[in-house]
Amino acid sequence: MHLYIVTGSSRGLGxxxxxxxxxxxxxxxxxxxxxxxxxxxxxxxxxxxxxxxxAERLQAWLRANTAxxxxxxxxxxxLLSEPGLLxxxxxxDLSAAxxxxxxxxxxxxxxxxxxxxxxxxxxxxxxxxxxxRRAMAGSAAYCAVKAGLDHxxxxxxxxxxxxxxxxxxxxxxxxxxxxQLRGADPARFPEQARFQGLKDQGQLQTAAATAAAIVQxxxxxxxxxxxxxxxxxA
Length: 234
What we know:
By secondary structure, this protein is of the alpha/beta class. The protein has helices at about 10-20, 50-65, 90-115, 140-160, 175-180, 190-200, 205-220; strands at about 1-5, 25-30, 40-45, 70-75, 120-125, 165-170, 230. Strands 3-2-1-4-5-6-7 form a seven-stranded parallel sheet, sandwiched between helices. Helix 1 (about 10-20) crosses helix 7 (about 205-220) and helix 3 (about 90-115) runs parallel beside helix 4 (about 140-160). The radius of gyration is 17 Å and the shape is globular. The model has no long low-confidence stretch (mean pLDDT about 90).
């Protein structure tokens, strides 16, 4: 059996990834604040803004469930704090975004690497963003989180050369996050018009199409050769 662990699995890209991966021979575990009854996978309702309990649960589960042919962790969950300048952003919103987007992937990766040491094929896929490589005013925490995922992936690739590790920008996807950016107050978020333009010009990809491309990329024999990648260039 092949194990896939997907965070942020209840909606958007995470749910689409779970649907793509839910096939015979695969065991899929989704982690999200809410479950999605449409998904045929084991689902853990956990708040990744409190990452230590989530990491501890994964640790216990992996210790009890072994003998996988391959194991893959997909750190997909992200939390976008209200778009606006950092100086005007609520402290609790910023803290939650940083915990979900960077602390949780770091802790889950630590547990995954330690507890799957005997699995023949292992992969970590961190879902990053172009905003981790190009800063944008009005979303400093999100930019920092995604840049952190890129550099975390580089460091882990050096520490664990036998594990395929990639931080992947998935392109621009029509998800709830895009709705949040388009609906932001232009006075607080200078880039609002650009995101509205992406929608108006039909430049957004569906979550299902993006998930299909990501799964194809994930299963390539050269996965991990390029640690920081973009699905549009793969």
